Amino acid sequence: MIPQHVDGVFLEKFLTGDVYRSPEVRAGAFSRLLPSLSFYSRLFLGPVRWLCRRASQGRCDDAAWVYASIWTADLMERMGCPIEVEGMDAINAVDGPCLFVANHMSTLETFMLPGMIRPRRPVTFVVKKSLTTMPFFGAVMRSRDPIVVGRVNPREDLSAVLNGGVERLKKGVSIIVFPQSTRSSVFDERHFNSIGVKLARRAGVPIVPLALKTDAWGQGKKIKELGPVKAGMTVRYRFARPICVQGQGKEEHTAICNYISSTLAAWQERDGINR
To answer: What is the pTM of this model?
Structure first.
């Protein structure tokens, strides 16, 4: 992609109705031979550098965020990784803001989800504080007005999510929540906390459960964000219909866990795991 004038204009790659499926994709020789080098060189010299430069100039608006998101998705397709997104009608199925509660598998979903959701409704993330203070990219994260957690004191993090979440939801901004403490290619509901349900209950907004399989961009052993890239592996997202929290939300939390677990198990049986 060659950046054009994007101020205030959302790209429409994922505005394809309920489902998006990549056209036939095939990695080039360089991407097949050295997939990680091919992908990361294009990522950092392309959308990351472009977006960081705009953020440093105070020009990282929502349209630029979406543009970089879709640019990254295009890079994955150039790696021969087809993208399949299902259930996108659920994003529009609620009146007002909502929570998107998902498993957290890799860095890829933080890049790609804005391109799917933001053209349909305002949205932000719950993020680690370290992401807002890192050189260059920290300015991008701060421009998104995220809810920031330290991941040191669970009580303080809970307060930050509940208070900051209600504040943003009242402004009409939906929130993407990854209740896992860390990224993982394996879903373990014991490490999937109920913060999304608690916030939805307090704010009185629905939850859109989201299962995703993004381990085509794997986790690194030394630097988690720079893991092995597996050319040809399918990238999958599936949004479920919105649910409303009743009572304490225990049944809804269990339903979200079951949805993600069963969906991910079927995908992993079909596609394998990038370890």
So the answer is: 0.93
